[in-house]
Amino acid sequence: MEEKTELKTWISGIPYELAFWNNIYRWDCAFEGLRNWSRLGQTIQLEGFDAVTFLAQFPHPIVLDVGCGISFAKGDQLPVPGGMQSLEVHYIDPLASYYNKIIQRYHREMPVVEFGMMEHLACTHQREGVKLIIIQNALDHSAQPIEGILQALQVLDVGGCLYLNHHPNEAEAERYKGFHKFNICLDSDQHLLIWNDCQRVVLDDLIASFTTCHTTILPNGFVVCTIIKTAEVPSQLLNLQHETARLLNEQKMLIDLLLHPRYAFGLKLKYWYYNTIHFFVQTLSWERRKKLRQFVYGKKKLNNIRSC
Ligand SMILES: C[S@@+](CC[C@H](N)C(=O)[O-])C[C@H]1O[C@@H](n2cnc3c(N)ncnc32)[C@H](O)[C@@H]1O
């Protein structure tokens, strides 16, 4: 029952996410802003972590960008003596099929996104050679972030790095709207804390025996955690047979839900609603959007975010 509620809550975030990206890609000005920010065709760059030096140790490193959205913000080239090497980057997101449609609909030339969810990553993307997994601004969108981290560590080669970069306490800031269901912050011991009203997990305590973990806050306030895998994930933490059973159960619940016409129509309605809002919002400048946000939420409320 709890799993069904989790799944329903997660699905309820889809219309908002799709409406947001649809209107970023629809409007030339919004898309240009995204394109200028994106580092496609440029050197890979991760805030707070020297990805170039790290990846240069390996002959053909594979990079997974999980929960990539369609921002393509990280870069896909590695400087090597005498030029640039194109990295094998896999862009992975549960909304891949919708995102690929949006890219095609507005005739934008962007990479193809592959289907995958972080909490089932070992089922879809287990392979040798994965040296870097990036989860940026997506862990807090997942229904099971801890499971997502364990699965990502399972997929990584020993010696590989899981890179997490998130707004602090995003779910609180966004009032748990859309996909925002978890908060991420640093606790008083400088450890990564993942929390909401139902769960509170200190990541370092959970994964210390098979990783080295370093968490920091960037000058812009973002929380960055780099986790180097030093040994295989203990089987008591990750039971893949159990995970496959859970995946099948989720599939069944999903089919049951979508066969309910009222439920499916409710999702469509929600999409139209958010799509109309974003249709107008994405034409506004960043400053105006910020003012609008303050007007809608109220300045006081925005400053009144609970912290961990
Ligand atoms: C705010 S976007 C972040 C996009 C990109 N990483 C960035 O930093 O611009 C969050 C993305 O997380 C994805 N997401 C939600 N749940 C997920 C899950 N369980 N596994 C992987 N990605 C997920 C959403 O579909 C969405 O595209």
Walkthrough of the structure:
- This protein has 13 helices and twelve strands.
- The protein has one domain (2-303): Rossmann fold (3-Layer(aba) Sandwich).
- Helix 2 packs across helix 3, helix 2 (14-26) runs parallel beside helix 5 and helix 2 packs parallel to helix 11.
- The chain has 308 residues and is of the alpha/beta class.
- The strands form three sheets. A seven-stranded mixed sheet has the order 5-4-1-6-7-12-11, covered by helices on one side. It has a three-stranded antiparallel sheet with strand order 8-9-10. Strands 2-3 form a two-stranded antiparallel ribbon.
- S-adenosylmethionine is lined by residues 17, 66-69, 71, 73, 93-95, 117-119, 136-138, 141-142, 179.
Secondary structure elements and their pairing?
Blueprint: H1 2-11, H2 14-26, H3 28-37, H4 51-55, E1 62-66, E2 77-80, E3 83-86, E4 88-93, H5 96-105, E5 114-115, H6 121-125, E6 130-136, H7 145-155, E7 161-166, H8 170-173, E8 183-186, E9 192-195, E10 200-202, H9 203-207, E11 211-217, E12 223-229, H10 240-258, H11 261-281, H12 286-297, H13 299-303
Parallel strand pairs: 1-4, 1-6, 4-5, 6-7
Antiparallel strand pairs: 2-3, 7-12, 8-9, 9-10, 11-12
Helix pairs in contact: 1-10, 2-3, 2-5, 2-11
The structure holds S-adenosylmethionine (SAM).
